[in-house]
Amino acid sequence: MKTSRSRVMNALLSAGVICLIALFSTYSTSAQQTKGKANAKAAANPKISYPGYITGTVTSEKGPEAGVWVIAETNDLQTKMIKTVVTDDQGRYMLPDLPAVNYKVFARGYGILDSTPINSKPTTNSVAIKVATAKTPQEAAKVYPGDYWLSLLAPPPKSMFPGTGEKSDTNPNGNGLNMAMASQDEWINRLKSGCNFCHQLGNPLSRDVQHVFAAKPDLPRTHEAAWEWRLGVGVRGTNMYGTLTGMGKTETVRVLADWTEAIEKGAVPPAPPRPSGIERNIVSTQWDVGDDHSFMHDQISTDKNHPTVNGGGPNYAVNAGHGQLVILDQADNSTYSIDIPTREAKDKVPSRFPAPNRPSFFWGNEHLWSNPPYDPADPHNPMMDSKGRVWLTSKIRGNTAPAWCADPGNKYASWYPKSRGARQASIYDPKTKQFQLIETCYSTHHVVIDNDPDETVYFNELSGPTFGWVDSKVYDQTYAATHDEGKSEQAAVGWCDQTVDTNGDGKITKPWNDIRRIADLAALYGTDTAGAAPIAPVGRGGKGGPPQAPYDPKLDTMVHFNLYSTMPSPVDDSVWGVAEDFPGYLIRLQRGNNPPVTCKTQVFKVPTPGYDPRGIDVDSNGVVWTGLAATSHLAAFDVRKCKNLTGKMKVDGSDCPEGWTLYQTPGPKLKGTNVPADFHYFNWTDSHNIMQMGQNTPFLTGSDSDSLIALNPQTNKWTYFTIPYPLGFYARGMDGRIDDANAGWKGRALYSNYGTHFVWQIEGGKGTKGKLVKFQLRPNPLAR
User: Kind of pairing, strands 557-559 and 512-514?
Assistant: First the structure.
């Protein structure tokens, strides 16, 4: 069993007997550290100790203020640092672990105004903070999270669906909604997955249009005109405008305009609850990383399967816009960036970020994240292996794959040939400070690492159906013997696409039916409720058979779900992926012992009322958790509950509805709906009980609520790890690390980062940098 192999690996790691393979890459970072970013002082300075603390009380004219945040901010370290705690029920606070420098200390909370900052240093003297109660609902609401403001938005009513297109002379009955919008749920799904995908909705900039009129004085002074213009500006304008037209331009602009007009006239959302219970025990620390237009998607601190790896060491974030690995050393509060190399010349590696069609309100016509001047590696997310190496999804070449990726002599290519791929993989070794680059054939997106003896590294293909992998043991052994990246990658890289055992013979054989339209999956079983036409002629995958033919029930069936993320199970050979194709699907790949011949796929559809799975994790019991970004559910799928997973499997996802359990977050709902306004970009499961909230505690990113959110499935209780300052904490992921298992709360932490595309939308505006975030959970609000 896989779990027993994992125990063996853990035992070996704890005994310190795993052999580390020396790697000798030609991609050295010594000549690639970006100007001004490798801090020369950082290497020479002694490590800073953190013995200091600031303590005191927060009071208003009403008395002690319980459940408000106290924030200490300093620019006196090598990078800006912010520490935040919460007051107890008597208004007392304790800011622990502060370097001996100058701080500005102030209080922020729901129902009060920000206090005047007090200059302070760590001391034994108490610092009393005086605050004033907000005099109006509008004053109080200035610091509410974005999802509360977004809850004032009313989607088009259900009666308007399905969409009939834009009104015109040839379409006089058009209602301004795209014909692809079959239901209100699909419109909400597109709002979340298309708009929230890049940034918060409801933050101060997005809920106001006056800056649009200031930048474009010739616009008609209507909110409709402001929204139509703003959705086409800047580096992401092409994407935003495409989302707008996909939803239906006229009606969507009306909805957005009604929302901001109401706010301009004084509408305010309901007040959020103040932190309570263990939420008052949370300590957060932030460090500035990157620059004022970095797009840092994710960070990593340790090996997911062995969370003591890299204990006390640096955090590694990826800067997609600049093609860099960004490093934070907490020990001395230093940060620097390293350019990620490519195998082909950089001018042959295209940027995925188009030039602006309309000038940005902040950057004009500057082509942010273009190549040149920025490096084109476009890393998406990092993961760490048991050796402390950082694996990245990054570009190493242009979009054309090498010939061996489609060569029938390669066993994977003989089943699933590949000719293109937009992103591949790389490894950074902190010991040697060198990169290795890996050709994957398929296009990579997320990277995750299995707990099997080969420490297999898995990838999903965002724009296709591929589950890909690199056998890291084979790769390391081959490279150690040959010092040849090409030979190493061809020996270690593998992949399978999605083919379902629909004829029930227990295996996959060629040829197979090849179905590419989601509507055809439902039509195949007579369950299509969208009124789609009968199933179209299908392709024939594999060898033999006409290119197009009627569906043949005697054959297996290939499907093409675009995977957003993937995660191997720690208990068997399953690899799970999620597909956002509405309403969303879990895709299970069972590799078997001889892939690709033994690869089999199973499909499980997200049940009503949920939709839009994005993140995925699998806990230590094999239960799959996925955050439903649009409906604000955390969904659990327990394959052990499935009554029958043998015989003829269905491709429409209707197998095993009994495996699902949905938990919805308690935030405010979009006006007139039962759908919370928050957005959950990703999720993570604390399989090692790092945060001491219970093994396998699942977490969601509250990407529109400035938070990470933990669920207790036994009590349905949610705990919010909130960042109140600066507003705009938009997380795309998280991980947890144990620095010292014997050090109590100080030896454990949960990490994330501000992952918005637009750091200039964070509180503070243009000039604000990205931030790496650390959460700790102490036993009480005054522990230090």
Answer: parallel
Tokens of 406: 């489609």
| CA 100 to the chain's CA centroid | 35
Beta strands 457-460 and 467-470 are: antiparallel
Find, among 300, 325, 329, 289, the residue nearest to 313 by Cα: 329
Report yes or no: 307 and 686 within 8 Å, Cβ to Cβ. no
Predicted confidence (pLDDT) per residue in 712-744, tens digit: 999 999 999 999 999 999 999 999 999 999 999
pLDDT at 9: 38
Whether 291 and 756 have beta carbons less than 8 Å apart is answered as no
309-347 b/e (C-beta count within 10 Å ≥ 16 → b): bbeebbbbbbbbbbbbbbbbbbbbbbbbbbbbbbbeebe
Name the strand (E) or helix (H) holding 93.
strand 92-98
User: Which residue from 418, 420, 396 is spatially nearest to 407, judged by alpha carbons?
Assistant: 418
Helix axes 472-482, 485-492, angle to 10 degrees: 150
Q: What is the pLDDT of residue 517?
A: 75
Write out residues in the chain with pLDDT < 70, as ranges: 1-50, 522, 526-537, 542-545
- The DSSP element (H or E) to which 249 belongs, if any, is helix 249-264
Instruction: Check if the beta carbon of residue 729 is closer than 8 Å to that of residue 754.
Output: yes
pLDDT of the residue at 492? 98
Alpha-carbon gap, residue 229 to 148, rounded angstroms:
25
Q: 661: Cβ–Cβ under 8 A, 6 or more apart, which residues? A: 635, 636, 637, 638, 713
702-724 b/e (C-beta count within 10 Å ≥ 16 → b): bbbbbbbbbbebeeeebbbbbbb
Among 449, 472, 447, CA closest to 461: 447
How many degrees, rounded to 5, is the angle at CA 199 between CA 340 and CA 255? 150
Distance in angstroms (rounded) separating the CA atoms of residues 346 and 371: 8
Residue 344 CA neighbour count, 13 Å, CB half: 18
With 0-12 / 13-18 / 19 or more C-beta atoms within 10 angstroms meaning exposed / middle / buried, residue 643 is exposed
Q: pLDDT digit string (tens) for 469-491?
A: 999 999 999 999 999 999 999 99
pLDDT tens digits, one per residue of 644-659:
898 899 999 999 999 9
Cβ contact 58:131 at 8 Å: yes
Residue 550 is predicted with a pLDDT of 83
Please tell me what DSSP assigns to residue 130: E
Is 624:613 a contact under the CB 8 Å cutoff?
no
Dihedrals phi, psi of 725, to nearest 5 degrees: -155, 135
Residue 448 carries which side chain, given as an amino acid letter? V
Output the pLDDT for position 526. Answer: 59
What residues pair up with 98 in beta bridges, in sequence order? 52
Q: How far apart are CA 352 and CA 500, in angstroms?
A: 33
Token pair 């960070």 is at which residue? Answer: 299
d(CA 305, CA 686): 10
Cα 572-569-490 angle, rounded to 5 deg: 90
